[in-house]
Amino acid sequence: MSTIAIIPIPNIPLIFPGDDLPSLLLEAIDRAKVGLKSGDILVICQKIVSKAEGALVDLKTVEPSPFARQIAAMWDKDPRVVEVVLRESRRIVRMKNGVVITETKHGWVCANAGVDASNSLGDDIVILLPKDPDASARTIRTTIEARRGITIGVIITDTFGRPWRDGLVEFALGVSGFEPLLDLRGSSDLQGRELHHTVVAVADELAAAAGLVMEKGAAVPAVIIRGYRFLPAEGTAKTLIRPAEADLFR
Amino acid sequence: MSTIAIIPIPNIPLIFPGDDLPSLLLEAIDRAKVGLKSGDILVICQKIVSKAEGALVDLKTVEPSPFARQIAAMWDKDPRVVEVVLRESRRIVRMKNGVVITETKHGWVCANAGVDASNSLGDDIVILLPKDPDASARTIRTTIEARRGITIGVIITDTFGRPWRDGLVEFALGVSGFEPLLDLRGSSDLQGRELHHTVVAVADELAAAAGLVMEKGAAVPAVIIRGYRFLPAEGTAKTLIRPAEADLFR
Q1: ipTM
Q2: Cβ A94–B187 below 8 Å, yes or no?
């Protein structure tokens, strides 16, 4: 087991719909002279992926439902934002103290279905999560791999809260190029005793590690993780979603 | 923002009650020739801290209560282990499908109150979480700081599951030397727009990053994280516990 490096990619320009994100990422990587090598994992904040893909809603086009108006009135929120949150959700998990936790259409449980109303695109524009973060990760990965002749992993992340624990942490929403769960069951510990129940969510650990250099406002929406050994595989972040029947917190 | 390195400390010997953990860690660091510098964060797996502190229970001394026997019978568990789990807990959060999630006496929500029955000390010995992980971290930090004339941070971690998401991740249970929450509220993003609600659980992100090299069975129960800038402060992992009134999942 050798050292892992978490390498920030600075000076990525502000991203707009239609931008060629793989090219902009490679240009920033080249400018930073950090290189991109086979075995690297490229971790990208959801916000720039969504912007490039145009996963945006102009609130001026949104007609809030009566339910959205009711929730918004209770907590002095913008009913159009609440409407967008409801449209992005398939289930409300908790609604309390002005916080709305939902399960998104993808299956992620997070505040406001990941809808971001605090961004640089103007007061009436909200940013959604990418429609299919695995597909976004795959497109970025295969484009970069083809252009550079290398094999990498890609993670699309977002910042979520957690039950019981304070503070936000970066999580994996989209994965391509490796398996997000590392199954160590059946491997043995130092004494030869079989280990039980040890499946590590490495994609979330990689996302959290990237979060250490992705601080908000610091213009670091992408990070290279170098030295984490993985077996190349298609991979999908969907394996990180705990199946309903095994979920004690539904 | 510069590169962060996650440096495994290999060849730490098996730890036994009464062992001088700071000395054994420093010896392993010296053998690995990775150094330990001011500004480093030393991340240590709970298991070796508990072993050194003798936070162990001999199951032969445990008389299970009727409630423990009842739970154990339901799911074919060792009633003595269930008894220890109950003694380490102040609240049962969920009990389903043979999984018991409790709030420990420290305030952590995790499976089996963190009691580890799968270890190298023999079939009848279970390992508890350290009695006061902040104090354990502080002792290790101040001992090493005094001996080496440096300023470091220390995190004691354990591997927990999460609601809704599959796989286990390394979390911070004890912190000394820095603040585990990084409060970015009031700082502004690229466009000068104020950011809201952004408090990052950096101690958990650091723990998860360390988890990437702490794989079970690989004899890497301690890790140095180098290059993460922090303000020296006493710090306590207790700030990572969401206050009951702000917790939507109680």
Answers
A1: 0.95
A2: no
